[in-house]
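User: what does the whole thing look like in 3D?
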Amino acid sequence: AQSVTQLGSHVSVSEGALVLLRCNYSSSVPPYLFWYVQYPNQGLQLLLKYTTGATLVKGINGFEAEFKKSETSFHLTKPSAHMSDAAEYFCAVNEGGFQKLVFGTGTRLLVSP
Amino acid sequence: DAGVIQSPRHEVTEMGQEVTLRCKPISGHNSLFWYRQTMMRGLELLIYFNNNVPIDDSGMPEDRFSAKMPNASFSTLKIQPSEPRDSAVYFCASSLAGGTGGETQYFGPGTRLLVL
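Assistant: Here's the predicted 3D structure for the full assembly of 229 residues, as structure tokens:
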């Protein structure tokens, strides 16, 4: 069965610092991988996704993630954090065919001035 | 371009009452999902429709929960009778299914339900 592990329920960074949010997955087949962001009192919004092809995926707001099959990871990074990046971030996996996304428990990103 | 629309945005009710949550998916999308988000359990998929047909309802907690999709532009999630443990944020999402599983799901703003 597919599953997602997000290490760290909270990550704190200073404005301008590197953002690294970790995601590891378990899947019996090559997966589809997603990162969603949730701002307070809002729904989830897609940041980026990996389906096939290039393993380094660029998303909105300067975020990117790299699919590493050997490490079963899909970590999310941003070179320089902005105050507006403060939100909760969810990694999700889908093994394909049936559109059942399995979400991680989320990581709350805190950005200090 | 309108996104997924959910109503009401907030609902406060008393235990035992019937609650109906509504969702209008993005026009042209053929898949609709109902999720529940709580602090304890995170995001859970409750039920998934494709072309208005329920495909998987294994996430529906119990018989008190029911969902319908009478047409491509409307879905409801009903809880009867409601209990305090049903308090959560309920999200509706829609997508244009291509059969691969890599499709993006677009989420509505959610309905925050509080059962007293």
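In plain terms: Chain B has a mean pLDDT of 93. Chain B touches chain A at residues 4, 31, 33, 42-43, 45, 48, 50, 55-56, 91, 93, 95, 97, 99-110 (CB under 8 Å).
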